[in-house]
Design a protein that fits this description.
41% of the residues lie in helices and 21% in strands. It is of the alpha+beta class and 355 residues long.
Length: 355
């Protein structure tokens, strides 16, 4: 059995928030007399809230870790269909459920986070055969606090200070972690190992099909800045970020790459659905009231992530699609693959969809 110190080292060694839930679960299973750990997060889509079990591990070695970008949202449990979890979220206190008397099996639910943040709601479920001792519950709280501290530190380093969106560095992390297709791969891949490969080295990694990377650039942003000034331009950048958050799904990863350049990484089964998402975003920007500058538009481009892509090579494709959109008058959403099929960017056989 690993020691507490060893698990603390593992938990604080990460540079990828997506691996923290797994590491926390493994620590609790290893250190305490419990049978199962479930970490469930609240997901949102079009005002609907559902539960995603991002990590589920048991003491027999079974379990799973879910990539939020790859879930079927409609298959998830509705928020109100897990009343005890909702009670835990609302009270911000531990909720204990015992169904076979005071000495029988039970579930202790604890809020994953202590504050009332809207984007990162979740609960930890600790399943045990009997009541947990005071020391065991204190251990759960101790490790949960370390998890929270690490999550906050990594979130700060992953975010753009102005808009709160993810930054360019975090795209590299998410892009390469997309190769982790099952629990064993996730457990064996550490951010440290990934860092040794070097995102800047542009090494090629196998990425599952149906990942899509898109970019959006505010049309004529230089004119907005020169005419209205720096502060108004910053307000426009923040408002565009708000529209993005309200348009795309909560489990899509939304980025600001710098200046007026934004991005989205998503998992989607169909090119037409991706185009529809970017068309909704483009239309929402067009009709949004930017009170200080009037009408503002964006040009968007997207591509599927190929087997031999790196973050930079995929971004280059999206930017070529954006360049085409802007040269065609702007306020458009273009598929790189669609432009390839139409003969604008070379031999389409070289750009087939990853299988």
């Amino acid at each position: 059995m690993s020691t507490l110190i060893e698990h603390i080292v593992k938990l604080t060694d990460h540079r990828d928030r997506d691996l923290l839930e797994l590491t926390l679960s493994k620590a609790l299973i290893d250190l305490l007399p419990i049978g199962r750990i479930v970490i469930a997060r609240v997901m949102r889509e079009d005002g609907d809230k559902r539960w995603l079990e991002v990590a589920r591990l048991d003491d027999k070695g079974g379990g799973r870790v879910i990539d939020p970008m790859r879930v079927d949202f409609q298959s998830l449990l509705r928020l109100d269909d897990a009343a005890d979890r909702v009670k835990c979220l609302q009270s911000r206190e531990r909720v204990e459920i015992a169904w076979a008397g005071p000495d029988g099996p039970r579930i202790n639910m604890l809020p994953l986070f202590s504050d009332s943040r809207q984007d990162d709601e979740g609960v930890i479920e600790v399943h045990s055969d009997a009541a947990l001792s005071t020391d065991a519950l204190a251990m759960v709280d101790y490790l949960r606090r370390i998890y929270r501290n690490m999550y906050s530190l990594l979130e700060f380093s992953d975010r753009d200070a102005m808009t709160g969106l993810l930054n360019r560095k975090s795209l590299d992390d998410a892009f390469y972690s997309a190769v982790l297709e099952d629990l064993d791969a996730v457990a064996g891949a550490t951010p440290k190992a990934m860092a040794q490969t070097g995102a800047d080295s542009e090494r090629r990694h196998r990425v599952p099909a149906n990942y899509w990377l898109g970019s959006a650039i505010i049309d004529n942003f230089g004119l907005i800045s020169s005419k209205h000034g720096h502060l108004v331009a910053e307000e426009v950048l923040s408002l565009v970020a708000r529209v993005m958050n309200n348009t795309f799904r909560t489990y899509d990863r939304i980025y600001r790459f710098g200046g007026e350049h934004y991005g989205v990484l998503m998992h989607c089964p169909d090119e037409a659905l991706v185009l529809a998402a970017f068309e909704r975003f483009r239309a929402n920007i067009e009709k949004f009231n930017f009170s200080m500058v009037g009408r503002t538009t964006v040009s968007c481009g997207f591509t599927n992530v190929m087997l031999d892509d790196s973050p930079s090579s995929a971004l280059e494709k999206t930017e070529r699609a954006i360049d085409f959109a802007q040269r065609s008058g702007g306020n458009k959403a273009c598929s790189y693959l669609g432009l390839v099929r139409r003969g604008f960017f070379g031999d389409p056989l070289q750009h087939s969809v990853a299988g």
